[in-house]
Amino acid sequence: MTLPRLLVVEEYNSLQQARDSIALGYRRVSTAVESLSLTFGRADGDTGYSAACALLKGRGCPAYHSQEPIPSGALPRGNKSCILDCNHVGTCVATAGFCQCPMGWTGDGCHIRLRRPCTNKPRSWGLEQIDPGPENLTAYRPPNNPFWSSKAAMCSGACDKDMGMCYCPSHTLFGHIPAGEGSLPGKYDEENQPINFGMTERDWLYGAKGWCMAEEPEHRCSCFKDGIGGPLCNIPTEQTCPNQCNGHGECQQGYCKCQDGWFGQDCAYRVQGVPDSPGTLACMLGAWRTLMHSRMENSTRPWIKQFVHTPAAREPGARGPRLRPLIWVYELPTDYSSLMLQYRVERDHCVTRTFSDDNSTVEAVRVYQLEMGLHEMMLQSSHRTLDPEEADFFYVPLYTACYIQPVVTWGDGPFYYGPIPGRTIQATGFMEEAYHQLRSRYPYWDRKGGRDHIIYVPHDEASCYVPKALRSAIILSHWGRQDSNHTSWTGHAPDNYSVEAHDPLWLPKGHLHRINRGPCFDAEKGELRDLVLPDLHNSHFHAHSPLMGNPTVHRKWLALFKGRLQVNVGGFLSGRETKGPHRMKNLPYSQGVRQKIALVSREEDWLNNHGILYGDHEAFDGLPSYSQLMSESTFCLAIIGDGYTSRYEDAITHGCIPVVIMDNVSPTLGTIINEADISVRVAFKDVERLPQILKAIPRDEIERLQRNIGRVWRRFLWSSYPLTGPLLQAQLDANLARFNGTEDPSLLPARDTAHDMSQGDAFQTLMEWLYGRMDP
């Protein structure tokens, strides 16, 4: 019997409760967080927290660690019903009485089909459906509409209209298997008609040994969709959801379909009368079990246990005392969170982890993966409360970066509110719509005008295009630009938020009136109102850092920069011959600063004359890893790109002194840690004198900065996060044991000693800062 390589989504639509449920238990690192958080810093005495709060500004840190724990309150129970019982496809939020629908469905009762058609031509008006067919395929001509020409969901096979993904046609032997990344099926369709897009030869897909036809195809496509793996896309794998649905639901590409009696974005809530239980890591049943046989039949999915942790959902007696702030995570329609995860198509986009063919965990390496990471940390934190009436703050989960890339780039829509060019313009509408949803469903925004609400907006310049409607909230971002009357600094046209856009139906007043004309990052709208956060890296990023237990080595390079330059098509390294002419291009990118330094550093041979490594990624081929080079450099340049750059925190976590080259931009955690205590700032106009400026810094000042970095570097890591924390802890412990006694005490910053990585990290820093903003 021949099995299809990939089952239709509906064929593996549910995970049923296993016959023998098992207790989840708690991760060692999470238990440590809860127990140590009540006593952290007590070594300095009952009232002093100098070591824990070193170099931090404001009252947040000492006040947080000196607070008295509060008892746990009763859990809220849902007793409201939903229209049509959410059509048995969605989950009823029984505390508010509305449905959270999966992709493919919308409406108050999840009773209206929500289609996301594959893209065969750019849509220039209305909301008409675009179905596969010769009339649409031949109409697609990118030169006629270059702005929307970069669409990956083009399809002439079978389109899954729930998510906008292309499959092999159903009449082929292996119909409904992915037709390849980008879904570009070839120059000719299966009826041998010409197509105006496509890079794959027709025979690769439809020939005798083609991907859609052969038992052992000669050419293979990638299995990039979440939930499938193997060389032939025939191995089912675990899918990724925040908090893995609390062990009380099935994960469907980011959406939690909760078990009966449980509800919420991560199935943390219970309806009236449902008893508490640790969760059931249900077996994979039905069609998936047919495929898996002995491999999965009796499994209880131990691979998700590390990622299921919801202290807020436990009964008061099991939770124990809590520390403030208490944070309620909004329950909203799925449009702004899990729907984006379902629409992401490629498994490693928008998430912090995926599962391999054997369901082992794979860390993601994408920029802005903190979007899911911070959401998950909020869900799993002991600071979370399920009762909004006792909350100090309200976290609004918005997946704007995921919407920008890949969702709205993949296919046509969803649009906010019409097919108007510009990813960031669409993102502004996305956030504005979420604002109207939360205000219409809950009373909490109006109580304090949003001042106790928290939104996190990643992406290059995201803090600049937050709509005015949300400006009163606490805005967490990576971009601390502070000048007023700002315009976009991006070199990527679709992300230019300063371009005006009009539409008689969707934007009759235009786009620009919706966004704030004051600073993107405003530390003055109240006491430390907004905060710039570090990004989330995978655990391997800091492999050679002396602060991760490696010996501190002699820093032989004066300064280092590795990144995009946009000077020429070839590699570029100061002082090294490379191919091609060296010329400026895409001047808006980095405000021309990276390009200017590239040309000057080559002309003046900074590499040989000053020991400055400066180049693009290609130029570093054959050299040590980025982590090792940062560990061998005294200064590391943090230069703007299309906006945000992670190089400030990259430097700090390697003991390298950041050189901030970002005029009018507050660096990461700059409102908590004085940047002059851990970094150097150079203005745009002075970058040509960079070697002279750095060489003029006295040795004792360099050592002061290095010592200070050694005191605060953990604040720039998300090391209490259950994904990265245990891996970072294992690295630190192994390095300390491996290199014991080999360190040179004269080198700075000193090699760190053994400590609990779950303490004093970026998440705890955020909690301390929020506590400091509460009324005394």
From TrEMBL:
Protein's membrane topology: Single-pass type II membrane protein
One Gene Ontology cellular component: Golgi membrane
Keywords associated with the record: Disulfide bond, EGF-like domain, Glycoprotein, Golgi apparatus, Transferase
Keyword Transferase assigned: yes
Pfam families recorded: EGF_Teneurin, Exostosin_GT47
S-S bonds: 82-92, 101-110
Keyword hit for Glycoprotein: yes
Cellular localisation: Golgi apparatus membrane
Domain EGF-like: 78-111
Molecular-function annotations in GO: glycosyltransferase activity
Family: Belongs to the glycosyltransferase 47 family.
Stated name of the protein: Putative glucuronoxylan glucuronosyltransferase F8H
Species: Auxenochlorella protothecoides (Green microalga)
